[in-house]
């Protein structure tokens, strides 16, 4: 029985989020420049998108570039942006063929113009697809997102559109970049680092976390299936007791 066949369809996460980490180390291990690792990470993106769509996941969010990643050496940032433009351009037809809609979260206006335009075009060209939504987190950080949400809410209070008493979980959620996306049930991070690195802090409140030592360019379909199988062994209690869940 293949790993894929072992997956219980009735307990499938609707939304999986991945911190794609370890490209630089992967390249360095073979005496190559860091960008070689990023280039090889594209195959893992393809594999993960395909695997998630195949088994029926509805949302896949990939952390591709954080707000803090702007502080990397300029050549690396430039090369990453170039790779991004190229990849989006090359993959749009495949997204359409596979009925996958592209979305993006983050401070998209801070991206270089060609990158921003390419992204908007791909989002527009895939907007009617419905099998799965692929969300790219680009120039994204959760604190940036939360600060923005707070600013918008403060403005609405100032303009008397809402009162401070109206602030609740739903209101905050509706001001996040992910307002139209359910919270991830499963978050995966590759490369052996056990941290969140400013990713979806609000949305991951009750997500199951899965860490693997595999570096991102080595991550394949089977690795995604393995993570899902591990997720399916977890008991999600949401603060309750085990006994309460059974009854
Ligand atoms: C993840 O790989 C990709 C991005 C953050 C853009 P890294 O580039 O962080 O690789 P490591 O962690 O240095 O090995
Ligand atoms: C997190 O990886 C961001 C992305 C994968 C895009 P980093 O490599 O930037 O995270 P840290 O610096 O190790 O926490
Ligand atoms: Mg890293």
Please give the structural blueprint.
Elements: H1 3-6, E1 15-19, H2 23-29, H3 34-55, E2 59-66, H4 74-97, E3 100-105, H5 113-125, E4 132-140, H6 142-158, H7 169-174, E5 186-189, E6 208-211, H8 221-231, H9 242-246
Parallel strand pairs: 1-2, 1-5, 2-4, 3-4, 5-6
Helix pairs in contact: 2-3, 3-4, 3-8, 4-5
This protein binds 3-methylbut-3-enyl trihydrogen diphosphate (2 copies) and magnesium ion.
One 3-methylbut-3-enyl trihydrogen diphosphate (IPE) binds next to strand 2.
What does this structure look like?
The chain is of the alpha/beta class and 247 residues long. The protein has a single domain, classed as Decaprenyl diphosphate synthase-like (Undecaprenyl pyrophosphate synthetase). The protein contains 9 helices and 6 strands, in the order αβααβαβαβααββαα. The chain has a 6-stranded parallel sheet with strand order 3-4-2-1-5-6, with helices on both faces. α2 (23-29) packs across α3 (34-55), α3 (34-55) runs parallel beside α4 and α3 (34-55) crosses α8 (221-231). The protein is globular, with a radius of gyration of 19 Å. The two termini are 32 Å apart. Bound molecules: 3-methylbut-3-enyl trihydrogen diphosphate (2 copies) and magnesium ion (MG). Residues 20-25, 65, 69, 80, 191, 216 line the site of one 3-methylbut-3-enyl trihydrogen diphosphate (IPE). One 3-methylbut-3-enyl trihydrogen diphosphate binds next to α2.
């Amino acid at each position: 029985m293949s790993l894929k066949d072992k997956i219980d369809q009735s307990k499938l996460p609707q939304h999986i989020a991945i911190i794609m980490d370890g490209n630089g180390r992967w390249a360095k291990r073979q005496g190559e420049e860091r960008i070689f690792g990023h280039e090889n990470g594209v195959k893992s993106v393809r594999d993960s998108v395909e695997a998630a769509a195949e088994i029926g996941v509805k949302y896949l969010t990939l952390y591709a570039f954080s707000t803090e990643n702007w502080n990397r050496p300029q050549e690396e940032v430039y090369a990453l942006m170039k790779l991004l433009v190229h990849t989006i351009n090359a993959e749009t037809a495949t997204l359409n063929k596979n009925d996958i809609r592209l979305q993006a979260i983050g401070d998209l206006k801070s991206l270089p113009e060609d990158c921003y335009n390419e992204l908007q075009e791909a989002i527009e060209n895939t907007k009617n697809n419905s099998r799965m939504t692929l969300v790219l987190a680009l120039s994204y950080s959760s604190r940036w997102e939360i600060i923005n949400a707070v600013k918008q809410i403060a403005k609405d209070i100032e303009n008397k559109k809402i009162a401070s008493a109206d602030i609740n979980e739903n209101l905050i959620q509706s001001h996040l970049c992910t307002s139209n996306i359910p919270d991830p049930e499963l978050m995966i991070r590759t490369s052996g680092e056990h941290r969140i690195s400013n990713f979806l802090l609000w949305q991951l409140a009750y997500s199951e976390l899965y860490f693997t030592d595999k570096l991102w360019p080595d991550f394949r379909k089977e690795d995604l299936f393995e993570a899902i199988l591990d997720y399916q062994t977890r008991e999600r209690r949401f603060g309750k007791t085990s006994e309460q869940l059974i009854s």
